[in-house]
Hints:
The chain has 123 residues and is an all-alpha fold. The protein has one domain. The protein is built from six helices and no strands. The longest helix is centred in the C-terminal third of the chain and has 27 residues. The chain is elongated, with a radius of gyration of 16 Å. The protein starts with a helix and ends in an 11-residue tail after the last helix. 25% of the residues are buried. The model has no long low-confidence stretch (mean pLDDT 89).
Amino acid sequence: MDGLDDALGADVSRIARARQSLEDACAGVVEMAQAVEDFTGMGTDELPAAVTALASSQYLDEDEGSARWVSKAFTASPMSLVSRGEAALAFGGAVMVLRGALHELDQAVAAAGPTAPGGTFSS
């Protein structure tokens, strides 16, 4: 255990770490998206709006919601991005990292168990 585990408990600290990973992954997607000139063919018509929402989010809950939107709107396969150039491939890789971070967050929340009324974790 480390200091975070000692202070918050293993379940809550796992969620905190997963949220930090998600925040880092969101920043990566936003950074890689800046070099993409055209999102056509990389996902649904909602992809540009989802990326814009992620870039403009200010709070962690907004990041999570926008990240899920980007993940859903991005439908390209890695191989289809190769012909689109390095920027598209880097963006696709960042979305894959984002999906991994979302998965880890979902797993951490599920492992912590149900919450009690009022949003506190029950024992």
